[in-house]
Design brief:
single chain; 137 residues; mainly alpha; elongated
């Protein structure tokens, strides 16, 4: 009975983390693509003048999917992606906060990155909790 409850908690936690990532994907697509394109369109600027292209939303979608499907590489993916994200975000925060520029673009970026950093700290902590934390057993 206790083991069933533990497995149930782990499943619900993985579900929460996966959906946290899916929400971040949607939010990131809005903040990094839709909002900048709309602003450019309304001001007559080139449509991509404020867009910062990257593939992080695809990577976050992949990890969210993996958290739900639990492929054999899930724990490794979670650890590697979390460490890379955390190092990148902390480095960018250090550089930004040395000389902050709180315009609308950087504020949107900063708020988004706070949530992304929080998510990946939770994913890393879960992955490091032990092999069973991200497994079906």
């Amino acid at each position: 009975m206790a083991e069933t409850a533990q497995i149930d908690r782990q499943m619900h936690w993985r579900w929460f983390l996966a959906h946290f990532l899916f929400v971040l994907v949607a939010w990131t697509l809005f903040i990094k693509y839709l909002f900048p394109i709309a602003v450019a369109h309304s001001s007559g600027a080139p449509w991509d003048s404020h867009v910062y292209w990257d593939l992080w939303p695809v990577a976050h979608l992949w990890l969210g999917w993996a958290l739900l499907r639990q492929p054999g590489y899930l724990r490794t993916l979670a650890i590697v992606m979390s460490v890379v994200e955390i190092v990148i975000i902390v480095t960018k925060f250090a550089l930004f906060l040395a000389e902050p520029d709180w315009d609308i673009w950087r504020t949107n970026w900063f708020v988004n990155k706070v949530f992304v950093l929080t998510c990946f700290i939770l994913v890393l902590a879960t992955a490091l909790a032990g092999p069973r934390a991200l497994s079906a057993q």
